[in-house]
Amino acid sequence: IQKLCDRVASSTLLDDRRDAVRALKSLSKKYRLEVGIQAMEHLIHVLQTDRSDSEIIGYALDTLYNVISNDLEEEEQEENLPKQVDDLGSQFTEIFIKQQENVTLLLTLVEEFDFHVRWPGVKLLTSLLKQQGPQVQQIILVSPMGVSRLMDLLADSREVIRNDGVLLLQQLTKSNAAIQKIVAFENAFERLLDIITEEGNSDGGIVVEDCLLLLQNLLKNNNSNQNFFKEGSYIQRMKPWFEVGDDNCGWSAQKVTNLHLMLQLVRVLVSPTNPPGATSSCQKAMFHCGLLQQLCTILMATGVPADILTETINTVSEVIRGCQMNQDYFASVNAPSNPPRPAIVVLLMSMVNERQPFVLRCAVLYCFQCFLYKNQKGQGEIVSTLLPSTIDATGNSVSAGQLLCGGLFSTDSLSNWCAAVALAHALQENATLKEQLLRVQLATSIGNPPVSLLQQCTNILSQGSKVQTRVGLLMLLCTWLSNCSIAVTHFLHNPANIPFLTGQIAENLGEEEQLVQGLCALLLGISIYYNDNSLENYRKEKLKQLIEKRIGRENFIEKLGFISKHELYSRAAQKPQPSFSSPDHMMFDHEFTKLVKELEGVISKAIYKSSEEDKKEEEVKKTLEQHDNIVTHYKKVIREQDQELEELKQTINTLTSQNEQLQATVTQQVSQIQQHKDQYNLLKVQLGKDTQHHNSHSDTFQMNGIQVEEVSKLKEELEEWK
Question: Which sections of the protein are ARM repeats (predicted)?
Answer without folding.
Answer: 38-71
